[in-house]
Amino acid sequence: MPHEIAVIPGDGIGQEVTPAAVDVLEALNVGFEFVYGEAGDETEAKMGVALPEKTRELADGADATLFGAAGETAADVILPLRSIVGAFANVRPARTYPGLDAVQPGTDLVFIRENTEGVYAGIENEITDGVRTLTRVVTEDACEQIAEYGFEYARQSGFDDVTIAHKANVMRETDGLFLEVARGVGDDRGAEYETALMDALAMHLVAHPEDYGVVICPNLAGDVLSDLAAGLVGGLGLLPSANVGEENALFEPVHGSAPDIAGEGIANPAAMILSAGMLLDHLGYTGEAARVRNAVESVLAEGPHTPDLGGNASTQDVTEAIVDRLE
Ligand code: GGG
Predict the structure, then answer these.
(1) pLDDT range class, residue 1, cuts 50, 70, 90
(2) What is the spatial distance between Cα 227 and Cα 236, in angstroms, rounded to a whole number?
């Protein structure tokens, strides 16, 4: 039986980079069956709902999902999609590539972001005119699951440095629990790790990213720190991600819908294609995943490049070059 891949391009440049990733997967001839679903701002305008039931069912039933980007409806699209596939971990690698200008050339980081709760639990209220609240949810089970995943990821991927990011000196109950549980997991494993206040960590990551490897983060911190790391390595066009559950998973670039360049055909497809590479790894196609990574690295090193990397190539030019270099 071929693996079924749900493809949900979403909004803005998601509609340009997602077909690029499908082109690369098709060129590998692994026999995936692609099923398409719609979601996002345009879907909401057309159908009155940003994530239709049919799209939910596609993601739930597929072996894996490729998702492009969400715009204003991100909270109604990407958060439920991650929940549908049971994705408790958001894995966001941020590394430099040979031949590309980077603010910090020695960067090789992987953010392991808690993906189900924290301030993204979606509990917001207007208490009275001009007063709004947000409830931050942190559970022992989710902290333990993300910490176990992060330490195991570091072990399997050969990272020596593990950092637990938190702000437990201010958010004493919620990040206090995150820190206590994550430390317990590290100690039980006999692992080496350090803990870091997330604001100070942001500064140290900018100054000395080479001192860090795997960073285990609460939800919002992982979202923010991974974008900061994108700035160190050459931009959001280079960061893929995997949303990993027990049995299912969803793959998406870290970037959003980029309305400023949407429709111009100049979005960098590298992050989306590298996300498809993570999908291949997840489904056990490790050789094909390596071919995708190598082809992307070769094009990043030699061009063509989209404007975000200083070139003038189109999304299609870069995609064709990557397909040509799949060995
Ligand atoms: N492809 C990623 C995307 O659409 N990002 C939009 C966004 O706001 N995401 C929030 C998140 O990653 O939690």
Answers:
(1) confident
(2) 7
Structure pTM? 0.96
Q: Kindly report the average pLDDT of the chain as a whole number.
A: 97
Amino acid (one-letter) located at 52: P
Whether 267 and 311 have beta carbons less than 8 Å apart is answered as no
Q: Please list, in sequence order, all residues whose beta carbon lies within 8 angstroms of the beta carbon of residue 19, skipping any fewer than 6 positions away.
A: 9
Cα(75) to centroid(ligand 1), Å = 8
Dihedral-angle region of residue 326 (phi above 0 means left; psi in -120 to 50 means alpha; beta otherwise): beta
CA 67 to ligand 1: nearest atom = 1
Query: How do 240-244 and 89-95 pair as beta strands?
Result: antiparallel
| CA 310 – ligand 1 centroid, Å | 24
Give the mean pLDDT of 132-144.
Answer: 98
User: Quick one: which of 266, 281, 273, 278 has its CA closest to 299?
Assistant: 273
Residues annotated as catalytic (active site), given as ranges: 120, 167, 199, 223, 227
Contacts of 224 (CB under 8 A, 6+ apart): 202
